[in-house]
């Protein structure tokens, strides 16, 4: 299940138990570098040929410097509500969130979030 994503499905019990991915675990070494900002990461892959592949991300997607798009935010809310089996109606909740600045108070939004 190599999807190129880091969403809920990729951290599920099924994904963690996937034998294809589990076969990679002994080959992985994680190093926490305190010199890196929390939104940065670097991955090095050492091939048997001796070649080293490097990928560095200075600013992760979804951080303040690289915010998610409105559509990505809506998709994330939908995924989280489904994952958490929320009783809220996600469509009206999203509409209320986008209209929050014009709302007289947050009461209606809170009721929607609570599934009422």
Q: What would your notes on this structure say?
A:
- It is built from five helices and two strands, in the order H-H-E-E-H-H-H.
- With 116 residues, the protein is of the alpha+beta class.
- Strands 1-2 form a two-stranded antiparallel sheet.
- A hairpin with a 5-residue loop joins strand 1 and strand 2.
- The two termini are 37 Å apart.
The N- to C-terminal Cα distance equals 37 Å
> How much beta, percentage-wise?
5-15%
Structural class: alpha+beta
The count of domains is 2
What is the number of helical segments per DSSP (H or I, 4+ residues)?
A: 5
Tell me the total number of β-strands: 2
The strand order across the widest sheet is: 1-2
Biggest sheet overview: 2 strands, antiparallel
- Silhouette: elongated
- What integer value in Å does the Rg equal? 20 Å
Provide the succession of SSEs. HHEEHHH
Helix content: 25-40%
- The overall pLDDT average reads 91
Return residue spans where pLDDT drops below 50 for at least 5 consecutive residues: none
Attribute tags:
5 helices; alpha+beta; 116 residues
Detail the topology: elements first, then pairings:
Elements: H1 13-17, H2 19-22, E1 41-46, E2 52-57, H3 70-83, H4 90-98, H5 107-113
Antiparallel strand pairs: 1-2
Helix pairs in contact: 4-5
């Amino acid at each position: 299940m190599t999807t190129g994503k880091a969403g809920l499905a990729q951290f599920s019990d099924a994904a963690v138990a996937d034998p294809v991915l589990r076969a990679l675990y002994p080959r992985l070494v994680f190093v926490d570098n305190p010199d890196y900002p929390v939104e940065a990461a670097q991955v090095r892959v050492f091939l048997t040929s001796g070649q080293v592949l490097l990928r560095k991300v200075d600013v992760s997607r979804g951080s303040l410097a690289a915010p998610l798009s409105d559509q990505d935010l809506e998709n994330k809310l939908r995924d989280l509500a489904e994952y958490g089996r929320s009783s809220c109606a996600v469509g009206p909740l999203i509409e209320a969130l986008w209209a929050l600045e014009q709302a007289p108070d947050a009461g209606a939004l809170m009721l929607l979030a609570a599934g009422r």
